[in-house]
Amino acid sequence: MSNLSGTYSITEAGPVRATGLDHFIFRFSSSATACHGFWHDTALVLPSALFIVYLGFHARSNLKKLNHRRSYIMIGYYGLLWFAALLNLAWCFLQVWQCTPGKQVAWNLLSLFATSAMLFLEISIVAFLLQDNYASCLETLARTFMVSGLFVGADLLLKVIFMFGFGVPLFHDVEIAHRGKWGVWFTHKLLLAAAYGYILFVHFSKWRDKLPPRPVFYNYVIVMFATTAVVLFACGLAGIKAGFGLWLYNLAVVCYHSLYLPFLYVAFLADFFKEEDWLLDSAYYSEMKDAGFFDVDWE
User: Fold this and answer.
1) Mean pLDDT throughout 243-251?
2) I need a surface site. Which of 1, 25, 133, 223 has the fewest CB within 10 A?
3) How confident is the model at residue 262 (pLDDT cuts 50, 70, 90)?
4) What gap in Å lies between CA 294 and CA 285, rounded to an integer?
5) In this structure, are residues 131 and 212 in contact, taking their beta carbons and an 8 Å threshold?
6) What is the pTM of this model?
């Protein structure tokens, strides 16, 4: 692993002075005492912490609504969202681990679990909404999670092999010159971009009737395809040692870890809880009307 100090990077071949754009990139993404600067860490921690606070503030009412409707699908995704959000918050808080001696293994494991939880959500949402119907039942939830688990399990296994078997520093941002790292991430993002691109291709083709008519889902796919394409471009640039590629990749990572989970909540869960609010209000109104609260004696 490379260590950066000032405007120099220490590699196996010795100290190399960073100049030009690379000098700006190194100053942006690292310091003498930590891997990243104050603004980088704030951009990660603040939105993640605020999202946890938001979830906690609405947790009691949301749990009541989930219990009222007994939707196993929504219960599963809500619980998984909490799990991923807490892991992601821990990952954001512990950024210093990636350049703290003796913490590399702990950082790699935390990064693996945090990114895998978010990837599981990302894949399962697509797998779930591509189904012809999604009745609220345990079989549908189990089938969706099984498919997602297979993909995420294979992804996790390959990352473990590359990291601990071949020493590829997948989660150490100061490693700009490691071609193996950027090759792995380029392939990873290429597969995701291909999956999102295929869905969009079918949606805008004459075969669109084979896909479920859910506009919100396709807006989500468009956003994720564009985001993945940007990260893919950044990995390609970083693979040829372009400083802008590292800067763009780090920016994309910050945006993903700070904004993806809130975006997922707004896109797929917020309407469920809002709809339940309306249903409960209607139920309360019906009960009060039956009890005669709205009867008026005009005589």
Assistant:
1) 90
2) 133
3) very high
4) 9
5) yes
6) 0.78
Tell me whether residue 39 is exposed, middle or buried, using C-beta atoms within 10 angstroms of its C-beta: 0 to 12, 13 to 18, 19 or more.
exposed
What are the domain boundaries of the chain?
Answer: 39-269
| Half-sphere exposure at residue 112, Cβ-oriented, CA atoms within 13 angstroms | 19
pLDDT for 185-230, tens place per residue?
A: 999 999 999 999 999 998 888 777 777 777 788 889 999 999 999 9
Q: Which long-range contacts (CB under 8 A, 24 or more apart) does 3-10 make?
A: 3/99, 3/174, 4/30, 4/174, 5/32, 6/32, 9/174, 9/176
Cα gap 257→73, rounded to integer Å: 24
Residue where the block lists tokens 């999956």: 195
Q: Residue 114 has which token pair?
A: 């945090």
Q: Are 85 and 51 in contact (CB under 8 A)?
A: yes
C-alpha closest to that of 162 among 174, 179, 177: 179
User: Of the ranges 131-145, 236-250, 285-299, which one carries the lowest mean pLDDT score?
Assistant: 285-299
Q: What is the pLDDT of residues 66-91, one digit of tens each?
A: 888 777 888 889 999 999 999 999 99
β-strand 8-11 against 3-5: which pairing, if any?
Answer: antiparallel
Rounded to 5 degrees, what angle do the CA atoms 78, 84, 85 make?
A: 85
Assigned token pair, 283: 């139920």
CATH 1.20.1070 fits 39-269, yes or no: yes
Query: Which pair of structure tokens corresponds to residue 75?
Result: 């219960």
The Cα–Cα gap between 142 and 125 comes to 13
